[in-house]
Design a protein that fits this description.
27% helix, 3 helices, globular, 5 strands, alpha+beta, single chain, five-stranded mixed β-sheet, Ubiquitin-like (UB roll)
Length: 89
């Protein structure tokens, strides 16, 4: 199973400790996590199921390419890092 970690900033808003999740794609891994943490879905995905513009996901240090379908492959020993970008002025 992949290990999924979240930024400290995201953890300030809701409980999302590091987890392990099965799945061969980013979408499958996130869906497994959303089964455990339904509130997290609205923080990460828009109403079309695409990654929100202020959220980035990295697999083993490389940013995913498919932010719409989340089809990037995830292997069992991969580390997935969910990063919520900060913005403002």
């Amino acid at each position: 199973m992949a290990r999924v970690e979240f930024t400290d900033n995201l953890q300030k808003h809701l409980a999302c400790p590091p987890m392990t999740a099965p799945g061969g794609t980013v979408r499958a891994v996130l869906d497994a996590i959303f089964e455990e943490n339904t509130t997290l879905r609205s923080y990460l995905l828009d109403d079309q199921g695409r990654l929100r513009k202020h959220v980035n996901i990295f697999i083993n240090g490389e940013m995913i390419r498919d932010c719409s379908n989340l089809s990037d492959p995830v292997a069992d020993n991969d580390r997935v890092f969910v990063f919520q970008a900060l913005s403002g002025g």
